[in-house]
Prior knowledge:
single chain, alpha+beta, Beta-Lactamase, Helix Hairpins, Heat Shock Protein 90, five-stranded mixed β-sheet
Amino acid sequence: MLETIRKRLTLLFSGTFLLLLILILVGVYFTTARLLDQTELNQLKSVSDRDLFERIEHGEDRLIRNPIYFQIMNPDGSVRFTSLPDDLPAKTLQRFMTADEETQKVEFDDRHYLLYQRDNDEQGMIVLMKDISATQDTLQRLIAMLAGITILSTLVLMGLSYVLAGRSVVPVQQAFDRQRRFTSDASHELRTPLTILYSGIELLETEPLSTEGKTILSDLKAETASMQYLVSDLLLLAREGQPGSMSPIDLSTLVTQTSERFKHTLVDRTLALSVAPNLLIKGDPNQLIRLLTIFLENAAAYSDANIEVYLQQTSTDVRLTIADHGIGIPPENYDKIFERFFRGDHSRHGTGTGLGLAIAKSIADAHQATIFVESTPETGTRFTILFPIS
């Protein structure tokens, strides 16, 4: 149970850290991309100075680190001067010039370019174009680097989160161990006086007593037996997560024998049994007998009709089903029925302690089994336990 909590905390910690890291890296990427784009645009704007254009018109473009292509349009739309590449698609240029956008990125011949347009002093149009392939390559390398940082950080964060989660569950583990030791010690301490009390009552029953005295002794004996049963249940719960010897067992034989013995306790009812032969699982036979007995006792206590037990194997698991036709369980109580001492609104139908299904769940968990419940009020309940195939 605590290992499950630790894994969930690991996912929570690493997920939170990773989300923050991704947000930071995404912010770094977009900030860097915006700065590079702004730098390229600023260079184009600086080149739009008329004096510099006159130098470029005379071939003096050595003043510019990366040659910038441009085109100057007259007010009537005719081209006054151009140095745009010949392979620039005319449709691309025309679409940009007729758009309301000041800048636009285009790609052709596997190269990336930034287009910029503005009106000149003569009310004409100036279009500038700069090769920004190097900038785009830089951004691609930045993406690869950030992806690598993310993957490496994920591995580191998961390891760190697992360690932190382990430290976080230490107080929980200590509290759980203290509770388990207390329950176990208290159960052991109570068993001896209860046994002495029960033996004393049995001895008194051999003495001549009045009818009222015999009635009182009978009630005391019943309550003492109930207390012994409760102490045994508490002791079993105290060992939760500590199954006994696990070994391959024939579940078919175990279910058949346990169900046949239980049949003798039923009055005016039958127990229908359908068991596939030779189904093997790995488990503790004593705990599995206790598991089946709990469900059979519940079926008998909460139903006056027949009980059905099925055992079959699928491609993924071995399924044990116990069905009754009794009062049923409201859907809102499906999870609560496995809590300790919970007996719902139908406790009058049984004389148990409210620990049975909690014990059943602890046994199922110890065997890596899963319990499913299907129930309809006033119609019946079906419990299905799925065991992993051995």
